[in-house]
Amino acid sequence: MADRPNILFIMSDQHAPRVTGCYGDKIVRTPNLDGLAARGVIFENAYTPSPLCVPARMSLLSGRYPSSQHCWTNSDPLDSDIPTTAHALGAGGYRPNLIGRLHSIGPDQMHGYAERQVGDHSTNWVGGIAHSLGVLAKTEGPFRVSLERSGAGQSAYEVHDRDVTADALKALEQLAEARKGGDSEPFSLNIGYMLPHQPYVANKELVAYYLDKIAEPTYDKPAPGTDHPYMKWWREMTGIDTDINPLEVRRARAAYYALTETFDTMVGQVLAKLQELGLAENTLIVYTSDHGDQIGERGLWWKQTFYDDSCKVPMILSWPGVFPEGQRRKQIVNLIDLAATVLDAANAPALPNIDGRSFLPVIHNASAPWLDETYSEYCTDGMAAWAQGIPTQQRMIRAGKWKLNYYHGHPPQMFDLETDPGEINDLGLDPDKTDIRDHLQAKVLTHWDPEAIKATMADRRARKELLGKWSQAIKPQDTYRWQFKMEDNWLDNS
After folding, report:
1. pTM above 0.85?
2. Are 165 and 145 in contact (CB under 8 A)?
3. Are 461 and 381 in contact (CB under 8 A)?
4. Among 86, 104, 265, 390, which is disulfide-ready with 96 (CB 3.0 to 4.6 Å)?
5. Strands 97-100 and 188-196
């Protein structure tokens, strides 16, 4: 094992792994992520602990599933006494620095980081003062308008990420200067981006480039009367239950590809600076995202489902001279496992009582023992604008070739991903698969009680409603808040 490494952890938002060259896409231009994969190990079956931003990120930080740390929604805070990877790295001798997106709600905007720059686009507080996207209002959420107002232009999310990249380059320069001054301590630098999260709006030239090349979605919307009842409700609530103009589909997909290329270019700037300054040696580089985006597959958009387009994440790890290069792993892993793995590689203290497992042995040896099983959770309390007050309790298990999606109050879905990678043939009610379904559903419900979760979330909602009234009346100051400008958001589909 090499000396304790530097750590460069890059995290995007809503990047579907299939829209990356190294994951097989023949259209998107992602040379920097592809190059990183060529110099490291790529995981083909990495999953998010929740297909929603805040719970996914808080689970990565804590190494715990949402049901273990009680952060299920974008308005749930992570308790400050739950140790995070940043706490563990700090205890292990690092001084963890975060530039950009953390996306934590509540008064603790550090969660163990020693330093932080740029900050988040959103308020710290439940009920706090929201940002405005001007002409792109509501396009960042799961609403039909995100497809109607898509294409060429600019969103403040991209402007935010330019600032993140600029500060990341400055931070690397400062680290290089410190090295010249004799500082030999390894660094830990996390860079949090917002792209390629919608709004589906991007540079005009890039959108035009992809409009000429983009393919139609691979999988069609289910025929009337064949959709799962929850998915039917979801389409109705978000306004995608009716047919979408084909031009809107192509435009939004082209913009997503363009945003992915834009993000890759920013990653390239960071990696080039790391190399230029002589900081690449003995540096563990990690790239991942919090969840994916369905970009029109099955007539679905955004995340919030357990289909692989939403629930899988890219995961690439490179450590020159230590990790293999240009290799792929098929093992089923999770962001909570990534937390344990980074701490293992850094020889930092392990987080107590976590759900994640270090897959460091798997990186070194594709045949190392590993339990090919993981979970993802999606539970809501009805507070979201699109939910109409209706809470949900859902959990997915991926075990070997099987995936089962549990919907409390609805039939399950089950797919054989070996023969049906597109998740088209739902076997949830197949009488010939009863034993498999019952076995997987029993695993889902072990130590996971949907009625107890519903009650806990209802109690937390009552607390959040009061906290929301407090913040609206008091208007407490936001910390590490990146300020939006409405004029940074515009469309140009002329």
Report:
1. yes
2. no
3. yes
4. 86
5. parallel
d(CA 232, CA 227): 6
- What is the distance in angstroms between the CA of the first residue and the CA of the last residue of the chain? 56
Asked if 102 and 111 count as a contact pair (C-beta separation under 8 A), the reply is yes
Q: Would you list the domain boundaries of the chain?
A: 6-372+483-491
Residue in 65, 33, 42, 43 with CA at minimum distance from that of residue 52: 65
Which mean pLDDT values do the consecutive 10-residue runs of the chain (494 residues) have?
84 98 98 98 98 98 98 96 98 97 96 97 91 92 96 97 98 96 95 98 98 94 93 95 94 98 98 97 97 97 98 98 98 98 98 97 98 97 84 97 98 98 96 97 97 96 95 95 92 79
Give the C-alpha separation, 138 to 293, whole Å.
17
What are the angstrom distances between the C-alpha of 23 and each of 18, 29, 313, 341? 5, 12, 11, 22
Q: What is the CATH number of domain 6-372+483-491?
A: 3.40.720.10
Three-state DSSP state, 326: coil
CA distance linking residue 245 with residue 19, whole number of Å: 22
Closest among 260, 139, 145, 208 to 493, alpha carbons compared: 208
Residue 38 buriedness (CB in 10 A; 0-12 / 13-18 / 19+): middle
Instruction: Answer positive or negative: Cα dihedral of 418, 419, 423, 428.
Output: negative
Structure tokens at 337: 């496992």
Specify the amino acid at residue 148: E
Burial class (CB in 10 A: 0-12, 13-18, 19+), 349: middle
Q: How many CB atoms lie under 10 A from the CB of residue 377?
A: 26
